[in-house]
Design brief:
The structure is a single chain. By secondary structure, the protein is mainly alpha-helical. The chain has one domain.
């Protein structure tokens, strides 16, 4: 459990680092060779963490500590999802391993969605800055005068 929580927290801290850096880096600034190498290693390690370590730690926790194995069949609430092999009406046996694997797939879906969102956020950071600048310029006092000196 500690390894799973630690890997998730490390992933979130590294993700916040990218968002923090995106706010500070000016749009259109040339990238040096060193910056490109550091960025590539950083993003590779973050990808390794979210696509390799976090799902692995989840599957290890579910199978070893919680005993969510393929030989344990899930019983539904009352008789709602009780399988036919256990005297219910549901035609499919759902094992605990199926549930843990489905949660691991959900991790992947969330991570891919987050990665796409971060790409869009990085690519559109100039538009966000322009929108903030326009909002600041459009502020007027209660007398209709601009609060910020224009041009």
């Amino acid at each position: 459990m500690v390894a799973l929580v630690t890997s998730i927290v490390a992933s979130l801290v590294m993700t916040y680092g990218i968002l923090w850096y995106a706010k500070r880096r000016p749009v259109g600034t040339p990238v040096t060779w060193g910056e490109a190498m550091v960025g590539a290693v950083y993003v590779f390690f973050l990808s390794f963490l979210v696509y390799g370590v976090v799902p692995h730690q989840w599957l290890t926790l579910a199978e070893n500590e919680w005993s969510w194995r393929a030989d344990r069949i899930m019983f539904g609430v009352g008789d709602i999802v009780r399988p036919q092999s256990q005297g219910g009406w549901f035609p499919v046996d759902i094992t605990y391993r199926t549930i843990s694997d489905s949660i691991a797939v959900l991790f992947y879906v969330v991570f891919v969605g987050g990665q796409i969102w971060m790409w869009a956020k990085w690519q559109n950071r100039d538009k966000d800055a322009e929108a903030k600048a326009q909002a600041a310029l459009s502020r007027t006092s209660s007398f209709g005068r601009p609060l910020i000196k224009q041009g």
